[in-house]
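Quiz preparation item.
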């Protein structure tokens, strides 16, 4: 079984997952583009027997479980970082804290089409993927062992993908990730001081300035963040305050699908289809915890879910690892302007 271990100096948790070493090694992006035979791709229709049994699927025809005919399919990761069975069994060993590596690690197979590109999919298909994210987050929150469910996508080998078939992943874990924890704490401090959402204040200011706004739709704003860590890093925020991704209505899911398709298509054109990661930052499992019963009372007022998109155009090297700082050679204002112009050209073509 995997273990979660806590660094006693900086408080960082690490997953020790020896079984992950058994998974296929990521091939180079160029080799991945040459592709594997769809007859042996475990994510292609007809090969459902090669994956662990599905935990969720959308089948318009109402077919049998673990059979073809699906539009989106979710299966446990064959080489999971965490395993669903067992108890956390939190322990101490002198100065060290650790627990069993209990959690969920699932793969969202986004389409039956092996060579599809997310930016080229119909809005209706992207919406199904987003609705699948919602269903899996809601389902896993029913397990009180899991404090947080992270949705993420690795595109191309450089970004961590080992298979080219379009897919994203989720990991449900018994700990709030450090980055999300910092966001939650900053949001709560801001709210306790000003009785306003930190993210809403940020959005209002950015919309007034306009320098880093890439796209504004009815329900969403796409920003090149002021302190972007990476070239062309983008964040997508709902314009209306909301702490939880799963609370969107149908119209908002539709608009988010259109926004995501638009941005991914623009990035593909402007940056020549780069490797990328995206990550969904949403509310933790809203189950009161003995240590912090007071926090969950303000969560719906102070947090604001958002979506982070990171093209992999630069490498994290010694300076970044040693300091926690990032060197970004592309000012976010320039990135925003380039993407705005590209979007404008697409609209007029």
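Solution:
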């Amino acid at each position: 079984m995997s273990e979660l271990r806590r660094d006693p100096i900086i408080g960082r948790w690490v997953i020790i997952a020896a079984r992950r070493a058994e998974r296929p090694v990521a091939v180079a992006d160029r080799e991945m583009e040459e592709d594997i035979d769809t007859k042996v791709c475990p994510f292609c229709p007809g090969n459902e027997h090669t994956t662990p049994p599905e935990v969720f699927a959308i089948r318009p025809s109402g077919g049998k479980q673990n059979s073809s005919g699906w539009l989106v399919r979710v299966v446990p990761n064959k080489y999971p970082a965490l395993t669903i069975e067992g108890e956390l069994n939190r322990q101490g060993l002198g100065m060290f804290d650790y627990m069993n590596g209990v959690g969920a690690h699932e793969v969202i197979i986004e389409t039956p089409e092996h060579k599809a590109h997310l930016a080229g999919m119909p809005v209706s298909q992207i919406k199904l993927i987003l609705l699948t994210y919602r269903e899996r987050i809601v389902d896993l929150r029913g397990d009180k062992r899991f404090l947080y469910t992270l949705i993420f996508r690795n595109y191309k080998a450089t970004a961590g993908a080992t298979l080219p078939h379009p897919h994203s992943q989720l990991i449900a874990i018994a700990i709030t990730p450090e980055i999300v924890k910092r966001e939650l704490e900053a949001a709560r401090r801001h709210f306790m001081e000003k009785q306003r959402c930190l993210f809403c204040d940020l959005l209002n200011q950015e919309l007034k300035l306009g320098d880093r706004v890439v796209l504004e739709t009815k329900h969403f704003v796409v920003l090149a963040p002021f302190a972007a860590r990476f070239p062309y890093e983008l964040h997508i925020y709902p314009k209306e305050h909301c702490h939880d991704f799963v609370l969107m209505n149908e119209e908002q899911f539709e608009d988010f699908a259109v926004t995501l398709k638009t941005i991914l298509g623009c990035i593909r054109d402007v940056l020549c289809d780069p490797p990328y990661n995206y990550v969904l930052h949403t509310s933790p499992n809203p189950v009161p915890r003995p240590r912090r019963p007071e926090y969950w009372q303000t969560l719906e007022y102070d947090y604001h879910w958002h979506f982070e998109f990171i093209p992999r155009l630069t490498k994290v090297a010694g300076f970044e690892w040693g300091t926690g700082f990032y060197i970004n050679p592309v000012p976010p204002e320039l990135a925003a302007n380039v993407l705005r112009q590209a979007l404008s050209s697409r609209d007029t073509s």
